[in-house]
Amino acid sequence: MMSRNGLLKIAFLLGVIIATIASPTLAIRDPDESPDTPAEGFILFESDRDGNGDIWMMHPDGSNQTNLTNTPTLELVNSPAPDGTQFAFSAVRGQNIDIYVMSLSGGLPIRLTDNPAVDWFPVWSPDGEKILFTTDRDGNQEIYIMNADGSNQVALTRHRDDDFFATWSPDGSQIAFSTTRDGDQEVYIMDADGSNQRNLTNYPDGDDWEPAWSPDGEWIAFESVRDGNMDIYIIRPDGSDLQRITTDPADDWEPAWSPDSTKIAFSSTRDGDYDIYVYDLESGNITQLTNSPGHDGVPRWVSGE
Length: 305
Prior knowledge:
Elements (H helix, E strand, L loop, with lengths): L3 H17 L21 E6 L6 E5 L7 E2 L7 E6 L5 E8 L2 E8 L6 E2 L7 E6 L5 E6 L6 E6 L6 E2 L7 E6 L5 E6 L6 E6 L6 E2 L8 E6 L6 E5 L6 E5 L7 E2 L7 E6 L5 E6 L6 E6 L5 E3 L7 E7 L3
Antiparallel strand pairs: 1-2, 1-24, 2-3, 4-5, 5-6, 6-7, 8-9, 9-10, 10-11, 12-13, 13-14, 14-15, 16-17, 17-18, 18-19, 20-21, 21-22, 22-23
C-alpha cells in the first residue's frame, strides 16, 4: 500500500490533471522564440505560475525563465532527450493524460501514447532510443518501456503494488525505480529488461522514493522521510555510503543531477511554496533559482554540450 506522503504527491498531481482535463488545446509557442542554450546547459521544470501547469526552461543560475509549452491545458513531469534537442512530457489533451515529445526550439508536440489510462513520468534512455514511463493501464502503477517513437510499449514491472518514478543508469544497463511492494516506499534497481529486481534502500521505517542516477554513475539521489521530514539523500548503487544532503525542516524532493554530477537541483517548500533550489555537493551551498507565487517543481538538468 502506498504511504501517506506518496499518496499526497500522486493525489496532488492527479488533482491538477482532473481540474484541467476538459480544457481546450492551443498551439505551442513559436519556434523563433526559443532562448539560446548556455554553455553550462539549462534546467527544465514545471510551473503553474501562469494559472496552469506548463514546462519551463531556465539557465542554471535561475535566469532567463521561459515558458516552453504555454497552453491552457496541463503539461508536467518532463524528461529532456540526451542530445538536448527535444523533451518528453505528460499532457492533458481531451480526456487523456498521455506522453508527448516536443522540440526545445518550439513547434507542435508529437503524441507517443494514446491510452485511456494515465501515462506519465517519461524518462529518456541514455542512448535516446527508448523512453520509460509510468502507467496505470493494468490497474495499478507499473513501469513500461517504449521506443522513442512511441512504438512497442511493453511492461517491465508486473506487481500487485505500485511501481513508478523510474530512472536509468548512465550506461543504460539498469533502472532504479520506486515501489510500494514491501508495505512502505522503497527504491529498487532492476536490469534494463526488467529482470533482477532488488531492494536498494531497504528501510522499512521510512519512505524512500523518486530516485535520480548521477551522470557519472557513482550515486543515486532520492527523497526520504526517514528522519522525520522529506529530505534529499544520496546512496551508492550497491546500497552503501548513505548520506543526507538536505536538513531543512521543510519538504525537499524531486532531485535532479547536473551534467557533471557536482550539483543537485530539487524542489522545496522552505519559502512557503514550491520553488527550485540547487545544492552544490562540493561546497554544501544551496542556491534558490525560482521565486514565483506558483508551484515550481520537477527540475530536469540538460547538458549544454
